[in-house]
Write a structure and sequence with these properties.
Layout: E1 7-11, H1 19-33, E2 38-42, H2 43-50, H3 60-71, E3 74-82, E4 85-86, H4 88-96, E5 106-113, H5 121-132, E6 137-138, E7 142-145, E8 149-156, E9 161-165, H6 167-185, E10 197-198, E11 211-212
Parallel strand pairs: 1-2, 1-3, 2-11, 3-5, 5-6, 5-7
Antiparallel strand pairs: 3-4, 8-9, 9-10
Helix pairs in contact: 1-6, 2-3, 2-4
Length: 217
């Protein structure tokens, strides 16, 4: 059973490396700077594993992920946007979770897309499904375009290509993290992490309980 964490990050991209994952890594970095334990669930891998059985929602990997979410005080959901909709793999993963699992939790939605044309996808596509899962305290989401998260050539791993987020967008993500912690604990984080390149070259601060689940993006 995974170690419990107050803040769970759900990576909703179908790709092993993506801009939405880069945004989620930045958020994890900011949280670790504040000594927050997090647990990342990669929807792509979890869904692929669960769909190999006749009752995916009863697969041990999904049940374990559900326990992680149930025990969390806050959930960050990151997804790419395609045609004004969040990813299909994220939808499948959320459909496999118990009803009302987000009740009583602070939820911070983050999305990335090709252009500002999909800016309202968080409001009109993602937030309704989060509400259906019981979320009542959904923070203002952050939407970033492809131009605001650029690929830095030269380094690639199985799960992450190195991306660089524009400083102005890092500030928006950091403000979201600040609001998240204030909502959960009633206190603000003190120090903004410096501009970081997320991916293989990002050395996250050591935290004994930081874990990653079995999925991607």
């Amino acid at each position: 059973m995974p170690h419990p964490a107050d803040i769970v990050l759900i990576a909703g991209s179908p790709s092993p490396s993506s801009r939405s994952a880069a945004a989620l890594e930045y958020i994890a970095h900011a949280l670790h700077q504040e000594h927050q334990d997090t647990h990342t669930l990669f929807a792509r891998d979890l869904v692929a594993t669960a769909l190999s059985v006749s009752n995916p929602s009863e697969h041990p990997a999904i049940q374990s992920a559900a326990v992680v979410v149930q025990n969390a005080r806050a959930v960050v959901v990151a997804t790419p946007v395609y045609n004004a909709a969040y990813s299909g793999v994220l939808k499948t993963f959320l459909d496999l979770l118990p009803q009302k699992i987000l009740t009583g939790k602070v939820v911070f939605p983050v999305a990335t897309g090709g252009s500002l044309a999909h800016l309202l996808a968080i409001e009109y596509a993602l937030k309704p499904v989060l509400s259906a899962l019981g979320a009542r305290h959904i923070l203002q989401g952050v939407y970033l375009t492809d131009a605001q998260i650029t690929w830095v050539a030269g380094t690639k791993t199985a799960y992450s290509t190195v991306f660089r987020i524009e400083e102005s967008e890092e500030n928006r993500l950091f403000e979201g993290v600040t609001t998240l912690l204030h909502s959960v604990y009633g206190s603000m984080i003190a120090t903004r992490p410096g501009a970081v390149s997320v991916g293989k070259d990002l050395a996250l601060p050591a935290t004994g309980d930081h874990e990653k689940g079995t999925i991607n993006e």
